[in-house]
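[job 0412] stage=complex_fold ligand=S-adenosylmethionine status=START
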Amino acid sequence: MALYIKAAEILEKAELKKGAVKTLVYESKFQNIKQLFALVCETQKYSSVLREIIDSTKLLKETKLRIHLAKVLVYDLLIGHGVKCGGAWKMMMLKHRSRLQAALARIKVKRKVSRNQDLLPSSFQQTQDVIPRYVRVNTLKTTLDDVIDYLKRERFSYQGTASRLENLDCLSGKTFLCDLHLQDLLVFSAKTDFHNHFLYKAGHIILQDKASCLPAFLLNPRVGSNVIDACAAPGNKTSHLAAIMKNKGKLFAFDLDAKRLSTMSTLLLRAGVTCHQLANQDFLKVDPQSSEYKEVEYVLLDPSCSGSGMVCLRDEVSEPQDDRRLQALATFQLRCLNHALQFPQVQRVVYSTCSIHSQENEEVVSACLQQNPGFRLVHLLPNWPERGHEPFTQCLRASTAKTRTHGFFVAMLERRPWQTDEENLPIVTTLQSGGEEKQDTHQSGPSDEEQENTETAINQLTNPSSKKKRKRNRKPPKKQEP
Ligand SMILES: C[S@@+](CC[C@H](N)C(=O)[O-])C[C@H]1O[C@@H](n2cnc3c(N)ncnc32)[C@H](O)[C@@H]1O
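[job 0412] stage=complex_fold status=DONE, emitting structure tokens
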């Protein structure tokens, strides 16, 4: 019930231009921001159709509901997931359901369309159609082949592995593909809904946007290693990390929000994750020197961000961004990234956001590299079509237009091999310290020239008069196995 009340409040304020939906949702302090956000955005998109349905059925007069609450409830009843709250409202909506359904059907006949989404203004239709439904196979519970076989038995039609991005645009009905970049990721047409499917309910598949699968895939922690997921809830990336680690090793997951963490705990249980240790803790207060984390080699940092890459916000993106909010987020993100690099054995840190703003992306990475000369960027997925803004082309960006995903940014920092002026120590491969050796097939290290270009560009950005100068790591080298 609280969800609908909050959604109606925000919808009203947004329509009265009292603020952007995104800001209003964040300020609401509602526990499940994502759910609230999705409900408000979707209701707003269908606003004119909902008004038509409500007017033609005289729903306000019959129920004494206020218009914004009525819109939210009618949206969820007819187009969304069905009214979930119990009690009086559900009863009331069910009582009027057939009249409301008939009104919706009449509008479709009048406009000569068969699907709900065809009723949306054309700008929304385009956005909706270009992001396919991505399904990550949870290899802790099943295999890619088993999922494909299961789906084929349900008359889904498997088309093999995509070879070009455009293949994804041709998906329709029950056809599906394997993704062209990420293993264990299946791609279906945008309209495919798995929320009630057995494989989803049993935790065999995870519904996760492709861009959001990049951080764990790129971090690629060694089986048996110690890993931190710094801002983890609701845990899609945590379960992905656990799958890559084959549930071996230790996965420390932190989040400030107790409610999100409790949802996460349920989701991890469903996904069969066992190598994790959840803590309702501020990551910035986690002590890197604690003996508990002395073997941590990998950190995944996916901190709170503006969310401007989420497609549902596209109408918001055109609105001027609140610069102070972005600055506050960037300051927090940089503190988290700097903190992640303090763990004594950390070799790789993946930093990601679902923001399209360079303040939260390249600028955070740039400041961090300035402050931590012992780390450098890793050149990620050479074949990925969208790169970080110059000069941070080692990083990845994602967008609906170029990658058929939500807007996203990923950077990976790695510890530099120790070098001193005094000793000419051999460069060590950072990820082979014991345990099983792993091939990194999906990324290649940056050339020295590329690395140097970035450093020069950073120096020039922050100090235009600086000369091209390669920083040296002055810390005494730690002895490592060759
Ligand atoms: C973008 S979401 C993380 C999504 C998550 N990585 C996933 O894939 O499911 C950011 C999370 O950071 C948490 N958070 C914000 N500040 C934090 C802090 N100082 N320490 C730990 N978690 C924090 C928020 O509660 C939120 O759950």
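Confidence is low (pLDDT under 50) at residues 314-319, 421-448, 457-482.
[job 0412] exit 0
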